[in-house]
Specification:
By secondary structure, the chain is of the alpha/beta class. Helix content is 38%, strand content 17%. Strands 1-2-4-3-5-6-7-8 form an eight-stranded mixed β-sheet, sandwiched between helices.
């Protein structure tokens, strides 16, 4: 892995991730540092349609003497989206919920673009709990500028027709490059991918932001305020904000543009500390809070998302149901290069009478990658260690899909006491020469300036989404596949480096093998008999994705098999 990939793709060890159960469901946040009695915690609020990931490098620097939280705005990153477009007050309310839940008496705020407008609203709602604030780009638009912003907003809204060739993503990629002038391509790649994650709700952030005007709200803020004015195409509009600051100033940064917060972390950390550490507490005891009550009903999630910490970092999982002494838990492991998100429908059906867990394999979804290219043994070790913590060391069943099937078979063969039953979607067993050929082709799909890497991935994902996957499913899977970044090929490297043939006859648990027509049917037929206690379910009418598209039927089939054991 090159230095650029390492810098922008690997989460610093001081940063951890967690969820809070807020009004819209899961509110995801990153945390670094510890609380201080003399320095306020710092809340970082991102631009739209991004999330808190670009702040990770900055968090590592600035958390040396304070608690730092980077929160994904609802609908972005890993925070659940509202069912309809929220306003800025709704976004602010969701952040304040977390501030109150963590018992933070007073916080400082940093808002980037849309995050700055949310920060202003937070100050208006809880003035007594905010010390001071820094905004990165704080545009006061002219009518002509606002007209352009509204055109941009219309372009963000989902379209009825999705281009079959994925060219709409190439258009977005080239547009973003115009903003990230002279930025490292791996930084552009990472941020581009994160910006695609909200899918058809990505316009919610700008919709809320453009509905409020800094010219109206900044004069109401008496707290110490520093406005950073980078050269990010909002230069003139941000300079205009100086006319509306009551207790603040503008710091021009003409040599820094989009992405610089992730590159120049030392410089920004120094600016932050110098400003926040020198502000005297503002007497706002008489400040009038804006009482706001959202019109949304609180969401109760059926699927709970969690992080499990171990020596390899954090592993992410989706969980439905509860531990049940009468029914064994089931662990679902996904194919590469997707994530546990593909199991959401199946989880709900599996988890009706037992604990059902779908885990992101390390390096995919939200699970941290291993420090180097992993073997199947390492992946199995991380998965098993994490599952033991979830199920309190009790035995469980495993459902494995392609790469997930190989990991499942390894765990079953070499940790027999932990696995009772096995369900496999295909048996990816290859002759040595074929494995070596596939291993040569298991490479990182590097970002290209012309966006051709996106077209290659789109074609692959369209196939892997199956004949029943509609355009929205393909888009979702496409983004999930991209999120592996420089680690996306590691799953296949692990599979094609593994001698599965030698493992098959060590599996003695009752095993159900599903045989759809997904390119593995010949190998499944050839090698399944090596497993001692195997049943084969031939599925000639199914291909990729059937466990999602026909989740109820196959959940019933899987449960029927496992409950007989």
């Amino acid at each position: 892995m090159n230095k650029e990939s390492e810098l922008f793709w690997i989460k610093p060890k001081v940063v951890s991730r967690d969820y809070y159960n807020g009004i819209f469901g899961h509110l995801h946040f990153r945390r670094a540092g510890k609380s201080s009695e003399v320095i306020n915690p710092l809340i970082l609020l991102h631009q739209s349609p991004s999330n808190g990931r670009p702040f990770e490098g900055l968090m590592e620097k600035i958390s040396s003497d304070r608690l730092v939280l980077a929160i994904d705005t609802p609908g972005f990153g890993d925070s659940d989206a509202p069912i309809s477009p929220p306003n800025i007050s709704d976004y602010a309310f969701s952040i304040i919920e977390l501030i109150n839940d963590l018992n933070l008496d007073k916080v400082d705020l940093f808002g980037d673009h849309t995050g700055a407008k949310i920060a202003v609203e937070i100050i208006k709602q809880i003035p007594n709990k905010v010390g001071s604030a820094i905004f990165n780009s704080c545009p006061v638009y002219s009518k002509e500028q606002m007209d352009k912003m509204m055109i941009h907003l219309e372009e963000e809204k989902p379209k009825d027709i999705i281009p079959e060739d994925g060219s709409h993503f190439v258009k977005r990629w080239k547009s973003l490059q115009n903003w990230y002038l002279n930025a490292p391509i791996e930084l552009v790649n990472r941020d581009f991918i994160e910006m695609q994650r909200p899918l058809d709700k990505g316009w919610y952030g700008h919709n809320a932001a453009f509905a409020v005007n800094h010219a109206d709200n900044l004069p109401q803020i008496e707290h110490p305020l520093l406005v950073l004015c980078p050269n990010d195409m909002l230069w003139d509009a941000t300079k205009e904000s100086s006319k509306y600051l009551v207790n603040g100033k503008v710091l021009e940064l003409p040599n820094y543009g989009m992405g610089s917060l992730s590159v120049e972390t030392e410089m920004y950390s120094n600016i932050f500390k110098e400003f926040f550490n020198t502000q005297k507490p503002l007497s706002v005891s008489n400040a009038k809070s804006k009482i706001y009550e959202p019109k949304f009903n609180k969401v109760t999630n059926i699927i709970k998302r969690i992080f499990i910490s171990n020596e390899y970092g954090q592993v992410h999982a989706r969980v439905v149901g509860k531990l049940n002494s009468q029914k064994r838990p089931i662990l679902c492991l996904h194919m590469s290069p997707f994530s546990s998100r593909n199991f959401e429908k199946l989880l709900i059906d599996l988890g009706k009478d037992r604990l059902a867990v779908a885990m992101d394999i390390p390096g995919f979804g939200e699970s941290d990658p291993t420090e180097k290219v992993p073997t199947i043994d390492i992946l199995a070790t991380v998965v098993l260690d994490s599952m033991k913590k979830i199920v309190n060391e009790s035995s469980f069943d495993i459902l494995g899909d392609h790469t997930g099937a190989v990991i499942a078979m390894h765990i079953a063969a070499y940790h027999k006491e932990m696995v009772t039953g096995l369900v496999l979607n295909g048996i990816p067993c290859f002759e040595k020469q074929e494995r070596l050929e596939k291993l040569k082709n298991a490479k990182y799909n590097k970002p290209m300036e012309d966006g051709s890497h996106l077209i290659r991935r789109w074609k692959s994902v369209r196939m892997l989404s199956g004949s029943e996957g509609d355009d929205k499913v393909v888009e979702r899977n496409f983004v999930e596949a991209l999120r592996g970044g420089p680690f996306a090929h590691w799953g296949h490297v692990a599979v094609f480096s593994y001698e599965l043939f030698d493992t098959l006859d060590k599996i003695n648990q009752p095993t159900l093998v599903l045989k759809p027509r997904d390119g593995l049917e010949d190998r499944t037929t050839k090698y399944s008999s090596k497993i001692k206690n195997v049943s084969i379910k031939d599925l000639p009418k199914e291909n990729y994705g059937f466990l999602e598209y026909k989740s109820k039927a196959f959940a019933t089939e899987i449960i029927h098999f496992l409950d007989k054991i």
